[in-house]
Structure formats: structure tokens, C-alpha cells
Amino acid sequence: MQTLHDPRQNHIIAALPAVDFGRLIQHLELAPMLLGQVLGESGDQLSHVYFPTTAFVSSHYVLADGASAEFSVIGNEGVVGTALFMGGETTPSRSVVHGAGHAYRLKKKIVLEEFHRAGPMQRLLLRHTQSVLTQVAQTAVCNRHHSIDQQLCRCLLMRLDRSTSGELVLTQELIASVLGVRREGVTEAAGRLQKAGLIEYRRGRITILDRAGMEGRVCECYAVVKQESARLLGGVRTWAPTTRILEPLLIRPRSHGVQLSSYTCECVD
Ligand SMILES: [Zn+2]
């Protein structure tokens, strides 16, 4: 079956008025996003921003001893690369694809032109940035005050919301690095969720069996982030497939099978 790609699968792109979308379409490049692909290392000068359509991207900070914790995950509701248009150019964090799929990307020059146009794109990017700040703040509170079970539910639900399937590719090592906890704690928490019939965990793949049950166990942080995102980007049009297939410029990834410290990634394109 042929996959239908359209930049309007991303909510920010979908929210652009027709005239703005028409101006940008020639610059939007379809980019495969491979599981484990690093979009930006700490201190990197960004060359593009990415508007995920079916992929999602985790941003986290890696400590000197290799330990890490995630502070945001962004899928088709947003954009990866805020430092580029906010003027800071770089960040100390790392952005890695945690959900394989696709994104559309825009070159730095085009993004900055659109941002300084002070039109709809600027308003959408700023609102999305505020939404990400909420996610970062809530994650800090969550990591300090809520149980690993609750954090695991939040982590899984946020990924499920941004995934195109009910199955997530997540090793226990990766979950531990996302939450910034010991692997043993993740094993115990995942075991409890599985015993309760909420998830099925097998060979690095997690299937969500009972979403309502997960929402019943998750802490308030999940709803705070989701509601704030809806408030800030509310009214954004969602995209529906049409018979018209756009023919984007396909970007080939530079490498496959990226080796990360916590797990071995697989090529799934
Ligand atoms: Zn929480």
C-alpha cells in the first residue's frame, strides 16, 4: 500500500492559511525519520527545523556520566528545532527520533524568513514553544513528585498520542534513560502494568491494551500538558487524507542503524 504523505499531517503546517502554505510548499522536504536518528547533538548549529507527521522526537539532556532524562517529546502537534527561530542557535540537549516515521523539514533560511514575516507561522511557532515550556516544567515536577508507575504511564500515553499504532518500540533501558531512573525500577513498574492487563511487554515492544486503564493510573501531569497544548494550539485544523498525492522532495537519511549508549536502533523505513 502506498503511503500518502502530506505536510498538513503536521498540525502547525495544517493551521497555516492557504497563502502561507502555498508559499512554503516548495520548500518543505519530506524526510524519513529512523528510530534512534539523532537530529541534533548538544551544541550543534541547526540547519533545519522538523515538522513531524508520523514520527516523534525525544529531547533529553545527557550528563557527563552518561545518565539522561527526557524533558519533551514532540510529534505531529509541533516542531523540532525551536532554538533556530528563537535566536539561541544551539541547545545543550540532544534530540533523537523515538518513533520512526516521517517529518517535513525547512531550511534555516526559510524558517527565519517566515518567522520575521511576523505572520501566522510566527504566532504558531511561539505558541508551540510555550506549549513545550509547559511540558518541560511539568516533566520536572513529575520526576520529583510522582511514582515510577505514574511516570511510566505518562511516558507511554504521550508516545501513544504521537504514534500511528498502538505498539511502541521501547526497551527497558531506553525507558530508564527517558525517565532518568534505574532499569530495575522500570522492570518492576512495567511488570505491574502488565499484570494489571494494561500493557503487553515483549522483546522491546510495548502494546497498550487498555488505554482507559492507563489514563486512570497516570498522574495529573499528562492531562496538564495535553490540555495546555490544546488551549494554545486549539482550533488547529487537522488533516484528512485526500486522493491527491503531493510529490515532495525526498531526503535520504545520512546513516542507518545509529548506535546509542542505551540501545541499538533499527532501520525501519
Ligand atoms: Zn506526574
Could you characterize the architecture of this molecule?
This protein is of the alpha+beta class and 269 residues long. 39% of the residues lie in helices and 20% in strands. It has two domains: 190 residues, Jelly Rolls, CATH 2.60.120.10; 72 residues, Winged helix-like DNA-binding domain superfamily/Winged helix DNA-binding domain (Arc Repressor Mutant, subunit A). The protein has a four-stranded mixed beta sheet. The longest helix has 26 residues. The C terminus is likely disordered. The site of zinc ion has 6 residues, from helix 6.
Q: Could you give the topology of this structure?
A:
Elements: H1 11-14, H2 18-24, E1 29-33, E2 38-40, E3 48-52, E4 56-62, E5 68-74, H3 82-86, E6 94-99, E7 101-107, H4 108-116, H5 120-145, H6 148-161, E8 167-169, H7 172-179, H8 183-195, E9 199-202, E10 205-208, H9 211-217, H10 220-232, E11 249-250
Bound molecules: zinc ion (ZN).
Residues 142, 146, 150, 154, 219, 221 line the site of zinc ion.
